[in-house]
């Protein structure tokens, strides 16, 4: 059996603190990105602006050249944005691609320990570095728009008015980020207290410790006032149920790990 594919360790993505929680596994990192509703994308701003730029964006991992590629295979990160946004303008003027950093985080639990310094989260996080370029070909752009739409709710694309009209195509830009390095970090389990506190009865007898699981929950869908569909489509109802069940199962399991 072949070894799992991993990202190379780079200076900016190598985990130093709590490196026992680090992962460079391609599948694990891609999963964290795809399970995050919002990605934060950082890039160098215009020369006149001294502050680093960062944007919350919608995006997902995929491969236009190999659409059937799994999460354990090389993938690009596709990001959706408006035509005149600064990141799109900078990417369009960068022949080699605009250097970007992408961050994704999922919080799975509040870890409450004996001391404030030992409090923590159960979490999954990923950092990706790569070069962003504008998707120019219409075929790839439509493919990426469908991929991103379905990352919000599976099958939403084909259950909407598609394809986008010319105005929508002109106002929307898609970035393809070629990933050069990435790392992930995962914490699971309960609090990790120091012996100097766990052996003190005055502390252990007065402080509750444990994990409060955190679940990203989708509530019952509410129809718009203009909605003309009588019953909630199965593809939406099934996604809500599946996502809630999976999120709760993960958070509970992460909290119970030793």
Automatic annotation (TrEMBL):
<protein>
    <recommendedName>
        <fullName>Flavin-nucleotide-binding protein</fullName>
    </recommendedName>
</protein>
<dbReference type="InterPro" id="IPR012349">
    <property type="entry name" value="Split_barrel_FMN-bd"/>
</dbReference>
<dbReference type="Pfam" id="PF12900">
    <property type="entry name" value="Pyridox_ox_2"/>
</dbReference>
<dbReference type="InterPro" id="IPR024747">
    <property type="entry name" value="Pyridox_Oxase-rel"/>
</dbReference>
């Amino acid at each position: 059996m072949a070894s799992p594919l991993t990202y190379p360790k780079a200076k900016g993505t190598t985990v130093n603190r709590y490196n026992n929680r680090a992962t460079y596994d391609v599948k694990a990192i891609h999963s964290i990105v795809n399970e995050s509703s919002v990605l934060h994308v950082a890039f160098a701003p215009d020369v006149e602006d001294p502050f680093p730029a960062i944007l919350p964006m919608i995006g997902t991992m995929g491969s236009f050249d190999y659409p059937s590629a799994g999460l354990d295979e090389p993938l690009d990160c596709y990001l959706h944005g408006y035509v005149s946004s600064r990141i799109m303008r900078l990417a369009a003027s960068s022949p080699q691609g605009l250097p970007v950093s992408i961050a994704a985080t999922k919080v799975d639990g509040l870890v409450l320990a004996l001391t404030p310094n030992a409090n923590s989260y159960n979490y999954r996080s990923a950092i990706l570095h790569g070069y962003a370029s504008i998707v120019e070909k219409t075929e790839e752009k439509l493919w990426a728009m469908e991929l991103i739409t379905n990352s919000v709710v599976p099958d939403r694309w084909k259950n909407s008015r598609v394809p986008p009209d010319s105005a929508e195509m002109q106002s929307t830009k898609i970035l393809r980020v070629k990933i050069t390095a990435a790392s992930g970090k995962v914490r699971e389990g309960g609090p990790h207290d120091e012996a100097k506190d766990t052996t003190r009865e005055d502390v252990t007898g007065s402080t509750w410790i444990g994990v409060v699981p955190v679940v990203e929950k989708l509530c019952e869908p509410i129809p718009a006032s203009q909605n003309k569909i009588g019953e909630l489509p199965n593809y939406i109802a099934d996604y809500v149920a599946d996502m809630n069940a999976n999120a709760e199962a993960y958070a509970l399991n992460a909290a119970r790990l030793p």
